[in-house]
Amino acid sequence: MGVLEQAESISAAEKAQPSGSTDNLKQRISQPCRNSSQLIISTPPETDEAQGLLDAALGESDATEPSEWRHFAVPLAMHGERLDRVLAHSVPEFSRSYLQQLIEQGAVLLSGAPAAKSSAKIKAGVELSVELRATPQSQAFKPEAMALDVVYEDAHLCILNKPAGLVVHPAPGNWSGTLLNGLLARDAQASTLPRAGIVHRLDKDTSGLMVVARTRQTMDALVQSIAARNVKRQYWALAAGTWRLPNGYTLEQAVGRDPANRLRMAVVDLTRQSGKTASTTFDLVAQSAQGCWVQCTLHTGRTHQIRVHMAHLGFPLLADGVYGGKPAAGMTRQALHAYHLALSHPMTGEALDFRLPLPQDMQEAALAWGLSYNHT
What is the DSSP secondary structure assignment for residue 141, as one 8-state letter? Predict the structure, then answer.
């Protein structure tokens, strides 16, 4: 959060005019918005699939949190408009739904008195004051010390082993305790980078390898490498059933928001629905009577891509309730682990190649099902 500029002083000419005069009204209408706080609590929102839910997470404000007052007169062009529309015009960095909630909370004043409702029609020249209170989003980007499993690190990047249960980036329902918060606490350089250097994500309940940038130059190069499919990302998955597809089978099916359930993704027809092309290659690692251990190689990185593609093939991941997978063999979270990450170092050109064993819960599930793999 930055420091506000000092509030503009009211001109001597304005003070000299009677409050109800025509000249004074013109001056009040034309004067810029005046800020009266030492803290800016608004930040430009990141583009993200969860963005539409951010305003709904406003909730009750803590009276002890910093706030920012803005004062302005309703412009002539907005005469007769609804209060919430006037606010959205005058405070454009906040959404209309957020401003409507401020009205309901009594944080908007009309000529010094709390506004009654969002639909009230407002006259030009009326003095409006709004207290912009901190939202969970605006407070999410703060350092929080946590233990992180660093597999490799140099001055440009680090490779992490993310545990299942750790959310990568703040979002509704998880405004703190995320990997981003941990990175901000661990590395002073992280605060200078968008998303603390995070260039790709793993779902909360997916474990495994991630690469994180430590400089802006590295971050830009990594983003380009991932987009160009020059970063190899392979996962291990466990599913019930007998795998019958040939090794090297590649599924090319677009992934988009499920039209029947907006909280999940699905294979979609791009001629009729919005989505993005997605490609995953599958190889059988081991098979038993109970189920299969499959290697999944990403060629694109869509939200829930492997989970959606596996379910589309009839093999939802163990314990992945969102996509039809049932708990089994002791698994209580989706059985997906990012075990292999390979790339050319964006600054030195050195070949980097990292592999992890199955995490403990997936090892125990594989053992319970008689799945074994000699990866020596």
Answer: S
Residue 254 burial (10 A CB sphere; 0-12, 13-18, 19+): buried
Helix (H, G, I), strand (E, B) or coil at 135: coil
Prediction pTM value:
0.70
Structure tokens at 157: 């990047």
CB atoms within 10 A of CB 366: 23
Helix locations, 95-170, DSSP H: 96-104
Sign of the CA dihedral running 325, 331, 333, 338: negative
For the segment 56-94, what is each residue's pLDDT rounded down to a tens digit? 222 222 334 457 889 989 999 999 999 999 998 888 877
Angle, CA 118 vertex, CA 116 and CA 119 arms, to 5°: 100
Q: How far is CA 232 from the centre of its chain?
A: 23
Amino acid at 309: H
Terminal C-alpha separation, the chain:
50
Q: Which are the catalytic amino acids?
A: 203
The winner for highest mean pLDDT among 15-29, 36-50, 158-172 is 158-172
What is the structure's pLDDT at 138?
Answer: 65
Residue 74 · residue 128 · CB < 8 Å: yes
Give how far Cα 41 sits from Cα of 38, 80, 134, 272, Å.
Answer: 10, 29, 5, 41
Count other C-beta atoms under 10 Å from residue 310's C-beta.
Answer: 28
The per-residue pLDDT for 97 is 84
Q: Do strands 108-110 and 127-133 pair parallel, antiparallel, or not at all (unpaired)?
A: antiparallel
Model pLDDT, residue 54: 26
Nearest to 54 by CA among 131, 110, 136, 134: 136
The per-residue pLDDT for 375 is: 52
pLDDT exceeds cutoff 60 at 19: no
Structure tokens at 216: 């802006």
For residue 278, give the nearest of 299, 257, 249 by alpha carbon: 299
Q: Which residue has the tokens 């009230």?
A: 120
Asked if 27 contacts 63 with a C-beta cutoff of 8 angstroms, the reply is no
Structure-block tokens of residue 269:
């027809």
Helix (H) or strand (E) holding 182: helix 179-186
b/e per residue, 280-289, with b = 16+ CB within 10 A?
bbbebbbbee
> Which helix (H) or strand (E) segment is 1 a member of?
none
